[in-house]
Specification:
Largest sheet: none
Number of domains: 1
Helix content: 55-70%
Low-confidence stretches: none
């Protein structure tokens, strides 16, 4: 799932961008994904999210095609 979400977010950030503006698109991509990926990594490191009944919608319910992009 992570690879698909990454590809979707990157695709949305690069949509309609001219080659000269690609650096700004990559900065926007990083700003869009950073908070979510940091949270997922921290949860994985703690390795606790499946040790009890857990709402998995925050991981599996994520739709990278519709979440707001960073400005």
């Amino acid at each position: 799932m992570g690879g698909l979400a990454t590809a979707a977010a990157l695709s949305r950030c690069l949509e309609g961008v001219e080659r000269e503006s690609a650096a700004n698109a990559f900065r926007r991509f990083e700003a869009t994904r950073k908070e979510r990926t940091a949270r997922i990594q921290a949860t994985s490191r703690a390795n606790t999210w499946l040790s009890a009944k857990t709402d998995t919608d925050r991981v599996y319910g994520y739709d990278a095609w519709s979440v707001p992009l960073a400005p």
